[in-house]
Amino acid sequence: xxxxxxxELESLRIDQSVFHIVGPGEEHFQLLxxxxxxxxxxxxxxxxxxxxxxxxxxxxxxxxxxxxxARISRDRATFQEESExxxxxxxxxxxxxxxxxxxxxxxxxxxxxxxxxxxxxxxEKVLSYDYDVSRGRSGKPKPTFGExxxxxxxxxxxxxxxxxIKLGKERDEICVVDRQNPxxxxxxxxxxxxxxxxxxxxxxxxxxxxxxxxxxxxxxDILPRDAMKNMAQRLYDASQSGGSIDGESAENWLxxxxxxxxxxxxxxxxxxxxxxxxxxxxxSFVLQKNAIQAPKNRRVETASGVKLTFPVGLMSSxxxxxxxxxxxxxxxxxxxxxxxxxxxxxxxx
Length: 349
What we know:
Strand order of the largest sheet: 1-3-4-7-8-2-9
Number of strands: 15
Helix content: 25-40%
Order of helices and strands: HEHEHHEEEEEEHEHHHEHHEEEEE
Structural class: alpha+beta
Oligomer: single chain
Largest sheet: 7 strands, antiparallel
Number of helices: 10
Distance between the termini: 41 Å
């Protein structure tokens, strides 16, 4: 589900803001003073809103980031000092092949209370252009160019990592986004925050399979018949694929099971609503093979009410099912051939 509601997003305001320069080497690290977002507030709020859906986490005991944010929440005068501690810790964890960029810290308020945003922007070299009002040989303005290396751009890929955090008396709420590794955010970012995912990938795999199974049962009358054949086996095979779920396009998983669906399909609508109720909308993860047990039994039902359940492992020489011909052939020794009596005194329907 979205981290902030539509009402909270609409009412979101920047109270304090700062950014520090971080990079893989100490020579890149530079602490800066806090700034007033002013007329640029809408730009930064847009970037915060763009990471409103991600993986849910919880702080581990003694997480320094939580303690630092709590101090800012109690006393806004500590913002600069605590932001420098946060940036220093982030820079120490931030290394290897990571790119130089800006680590932004925002203290925000909204209808739901205080929110903190920690954003890592990577520097992107851009070519700016303008034109000289003095005329060129053709009598038209002459273009001029300039390289700018340190930029904040709206390109979603420039905002590589982000965490939105709400501190609470009973529990905290944390949303983490890693655009390079949406399923498994970088270990150094998790270690910097000192957090763990609220649900394991095994739990997320089981939940999305169960949600899909329920959706299939609810909409079996409007889903293609071919899509409903071997549904349990199809779900199991999909869970074993080693694929991944992208929280921003989780409907792709559903379409891989049911086939193409129109954007206004009630199946898609119910699927997204169910994920939201389960608290896993926006979660990205890798499907785990050990999360779902292989089907043990196969069930076949006919239009006349015949129901058969038999072990999956039985060879076709023992039992064969031909859907096209509407035939079920069993070649096995019969050990029971009798009628079922109703001794409860109630008529079965």
